[in-house]
Structure formats: structure tokens, C-alpha cells
Specification:
Blueprint: E1 3-8, E2 12-20, E3 26-35, H1 41-51, E4 58-63, E5 74-75, H2 78-86, H3 95-109, E6 115-119, H4 129-132, H5 153-166, E7 175-181, E8 185-191, E9 194-198, H6 221-229, H7 233-242, H8 245-250, H9 256-260, H10 265-289, E10 294-298, H11 299-304, H12 306-313, H13 325-330, E11 336-337, E12 346-349, H14 354-372
Parallel strand pairs: 1-4, 4-6, 7-10, 10-12
Antiparallel strand pairs: 1-2, 2-3, 5-6, 7-8, 8-9, 11-12
Helix pairs in contact: 1-3, 5-14, 6-7, 10-12
Length: about 375
């Protein structure tokens, strides 16, 4: 069975070809990545199809927002397409783009190739009520879909699965904190496979300081800036999403790695704030979990920038967290242990692998359909 994964963003797409391997572990056959504001899904997939014979057995799409309706991988049909479109106001840069790739794949391969939607919010669909709801009256809160959804679910799930394979003696991975640090950043508290909390909420703007997003912010700032800057609410949100975070504080577009080596006060403070917010959430999630067996760093920054990992974990020896400086400095992209041997909390770098979750979901959904058909 050849499976195609389509991991689309607002201006990019990652395509992967896989076949299920032993014990459900996907075997990667190949892949490609495309970027640009003028990407044509039909043209990209047609070019792929010319090199791919026969057609894939199934296509798995990463869909950013599934709301409260989609809490597991779902076979795509006309009704599902409509529902994903209705959720677009909650993910205006991503859900509409994903639907373009769904439409292109459907036109190219037809109904003979089933398509599966795998939702980034689904991993957090069953957060405890205290973690998923805001302190709002129900009529303006949950009844209108205003709640904490969480994002980066595929990334956090993939890190948790890899962790479980590393430490099978810990039931379902024990008490784990996963960090997805890239352009967007999030952290999750996972108790034996069940997410108890995560930093992103109603939108990906909540939580940690990110490349261009503020993270946690007092809501009263939005109308204040509307008046002070003579902007609309949407324009203020645009500023908070695209010109804030590390970029806004440092005044540059430099990466965290570059900011670490920049002696300017603004750059140093930007990194300090970035790491402080991570450390603050780590302490909170240790309390949520009632202790911690492991901390995992993933994502482009989490996997490649030792200085960020060191800054984020500084001062946590009281909680049993300590890095091995040599191992941490050497860990740049490869899965590896970076915690000190004497520390009670294991610390690892584990590459987040969203595609592995897509493949698993597509294979399981395809097999379930075949079983249902007898």
C-alpha cells in the first residue's frame, strides 16, 4: 500500500510517499516540498502523478482545525468538505488552503483513491474541562465555539509515540512534557498518552513567545491599541500574529540561534523572554502532571538550538531537571538524550514527525473501511 501525505500550510506544502512498515512504523519512499504564494495544487500533484505509478492507495491530509466535531481521522466526503469549510473562520490561512489540495487530489485520482483528513486539533479534543474552557458565560463561550482547541497536535503526538518506544517501561510514556519549537511554538502536558493541557488555545496566538506571535496577552490590549493606533481589531490581531514575538522584541527577523550570538540588548532580552515563557509553562505543567518523567524538545528550534534548550531549563534543578552540557551542545537535529545522567527527569531531543501520524491514520482508516465492506 502506497500512501501519500499532504501537509499543507498557508504558503507551502510537504508531500510524502510512504508504505506501512512493521508494527505500523511507516517506511518513507520519498517526498518533496514546495513553497510560494502562487502554489497550484493541481499542477504540483499532476507532476507527482506522472512519476508515481500506480496511483496511491490513499491520501492523508493534515487539516489544522477540526473544531469540536472532528476528534479523529475522518474519511473525506462532500459532507466533511463542507464542515471543514465552515471551520475556516477559526483557521482562515490553513483550512481553505487544505481544501484546495483535497479538491486537486480528488480531481486527479477520483473516488478510487480515498482521502483522509487528520486534524491538528484532534489530539487535544478531550482536554479536561478545566483546561479547555475559558471563564466565560456559556452563551458567549462554549455555545459559540469559544474554547481552547490546542494546535500542533500531530507534532506532539509523534513526539509522544517516539518517547513511548524509547521507554516502554513507562506505562503509555508516563508523565511527559513535549515542546514543539519552530516558527510557531507550543508545549503540552501528557499523562500516559492523555493530553491534560497545552499552551495554544482558541487560536495559535495563545501561549509561548513565538517567531512573530506574542503568545499570552491581556485581551484588553487589543481595544487599547485600536484606539491608540487608529486600527481595526483585525489589524491589531495581524500585528500580534505577524510583527510581534521575537521579531517584535528584537527588532529583527533573526532566528533564535542568531539572536543568541547577537550582543545587542534587544536581542538578548528577546531570547530571555522566549526562554522565560517556556520555563514558566514547564513549571506549571509539572504541577498539572503531579511530577514529570520526561521533557522532549522538537521542531526546528527545539531540535537545532542548544542555547534555547539550556535557557529554557535553567534553574530547574530543584525539579530534577538538568542538562548534560556536552550532549546538549552536540544535539543538532538527531534524536538524542541531552539530560544529565544523575537527573531524575529524562530530557531528550526528538524530531517531531507529523507525516508518521498522517500515515498511521490513513492506513488505519483504509483498513477500517475494508473491514466494514467485508
Amino acid at each position: 500500500m502506497t500512501l501519500l501525505t499532504v501537509n499543507s500550510g498557508s504558503t507551502s506544502v510537504k508531500l510524502g510517499l510512504y508504505e506501512p512498515g512493521p508494527a505500523g512504523t511507516p517506511l518513507r519512499l520519498g517526498g518533496e516540498q514546495h513553497t510560494g504564494h502562487d502554489l497550484d495544487p493541481s499542477a504540483v500533484l499532476r507532476a507527482l502523478a506522472e512519476r508515481l505509478r500506480p496511483a496511491p492507495e490513499a491520501v492523508a491530509h493534515r487539516i489544522v482545525h477540526g473544531g469540536t466535531r472532528f476528534v479523529r481521522p475522518t474519511r473525506i466526503d462532500a459532507e466533511v468538505i463542507t464542515a471543514i469549510g465552515e471551520l475556516s473562520p477559526l483557521a482562515p490561512l490553513h483550512n481553505p488552503q487544505a481544501l484546495r489540495w483535497v479538491a486537486a487530489a480528488g480531481e486527479l485520482w477520483g473516488i478510487g483513491t480515498p482521502q483522509v483528513a487528520v486534524f491538528d486539533t484532534a489530539f487535544f479534543a478531550h482536554l479536561p474541562r478545566v483546561a479547555s474552557e475559558y471563564a466565560l458565560p456559556a452563551r458567549i463561550g462554549v455555545e459559540r465555539g469559544v474554547r481552547r482547541y490546542g494546535f500542533h497536535g500531530l507534532a506532539h503526538e509523534s513526539m509522544w509515540r517516539k518517547w513511548c518506544a524509547l521507554y516502554p517501561e513507562l506505562p503509555q510514556g508516563g508523565r511527559l512534557i513535549t515542546l514543539q519549537l519552530g516558527g510557531g511554538c507550543s508545549i503540552a502536558a501528557i499523562d500516559r498518552g492523555r493530553p491534560l493541557d497545552t499552551s495554544m488555545g482558541f487560536s495559535p496566538l495563545e501561549g509561548l513567545v513565538m517567531a512573530t506571535r506574542t503568545g499570552d496577552l491581556d485581551a484588553a490590549i487589543v481595544p487599547y491599541l485600536e484606539r491608540e493606533l487608529a486600527l481595526t481589531g483585525d489589524q491589531v490581531i495581524e500585528l500580534l500574529n505577524n510583527t510581534s514575538g521575537l521579531a517584535g522584541v528584537s527588532g529583527t527577523q533573526a532566528s533564535p540561534a542568531a539572536l543568541l550570538s547577537d550582543p545587542s540588548p534587544a536581542s538578548r532580552f528577546a531570547v530571555e523572554l522566549y526562554c522565560y515563557r517556556i520555563r514558566k509553562y514547564l513549571g506549571a505543567y509539572m504541577a498539572v502532571l503531579g511530577g514529570c518523567d520526561g521533557i522532549v524538545f522538537g521542531g526546528g528550534v527545539g531540535e537545532h538550538v542548544p542555547g534555547v534548550r539550556a535557557g529554557a531549563l535553567a534553574g530547574l534543578a530543584w525539579a530534577g531537571v538538568a542538562l548534560d552540557p556536552v550532549l546538549n551542545a552536540a544535539a543538532r537535529g538527531a534524536d538524542s538524550r541531552i539530560g544529565a545522567a544523575h537527573a531524575t527527569v529524562r530530557v531528550h531531543v526528538i524530531g517531531s514527525d507529523e507525516e508518521s501520524v498522517l500515515v498511521r491514520a490513513a492506513a488505519e482508516t483504509r483498513e477500517a473501511a475494508r473491514t466494514a465492506m467485508g
